[in-house]
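Worked Example 4.2. Consider the chain below.
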Amino acid sequence: MVFTSGSSGAPKAALLAQKGLVQAAQKRVTAWQHQGWRTLMNLPINHIGGVGDLCCTTLIAGGMLAFMERFDALGSLQVIERERLTLWFQVPTQMQLSLSQPSADTYDLSSLKAVIWSGAPAPRALVEDLAQRFPGKLGTDYSMTESIGAVSLTPLMDDVETLTKTVGWPVPGRAFNLRDGEITIKDDAMFAGYLGLSADETFEADGAFRTGDLGEIDAQGRLRITGRAKDMFKSGGYNVYPREVETALEAHDGVAMAAVIAMPDPIYNEVGHAFVLPNPNDSLSAADLDAFVRERLANYKVPKKITISSDLPLLPIGKIDKKALKRAEDIS
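Applying the procedure from the previous section yields the following structure tokens:
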């Protein structure tokens, strides 16, 4: 049993088979071939990122794991240098926090052969920074607890367009599909269900699992995540997908990361509230960001409120905790 992250609802206990974990590891080892497989392990062991993505992949590769009790931004760089680690596989927020430390550039990270993120999209500024630091060594995948392994991924590369606008190519052998724009999976490598819930409550009639993520395939056959069905809200009758708004905000050179949630509005029913974390030493104003996104988004998608914060709440797995932001909004 591995619990889901709870980023879009209450955590659920997913039942994972050994077969799925092994197959997931084999796919990643094949895609991200490098020598060593010395891996930083600083994710919770009771989530798929820790037990599956990092531990099982490294075990199947025949490598070494450097455990940390919990994520520490500067400590992660220290362990990479000290243990001469070769694989840095994180949620993008963790890489962002590590590399934004004032002393980050003093650490020797030359042992890294693969720098990979999953669990959330990476801001373009971060990918461009990584591409300069680790040319040809970057990768990403799209996966979740329920898929066990990657649904799509990239080989190691430094193609910023592929790494920022897509989540790579569908993994061969996975039964991947789009139903009304929502990504579904159906194969014997995915989870068996949730503890305490029936198959009818979990899967479609044909056994497919609806991921809740919206996507499309581009002309190069790459999967692009366009939003999260549960995150979508209606503003004045129009659909707003927070990820599109976050991407527009993160295109600003001074923005490290952004999170958008819905808040009630007496006229439009719901409107967007954006929380923005600036890059170190950059000064931002809500007015500047408002003008910036108005050049990139339709009027109804522009957040009605922009909060610039020096810190954003994180889940244990490194994702931005939108439920915590929502609670703070409700209190205010």
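The mean pLDDT is 91. Residues 233-331 form a domain with the GMP Synthetase; Chain A, domain 3 fold (CATH 3.30.300.30). Compare this with Example 4.1 before moving on.
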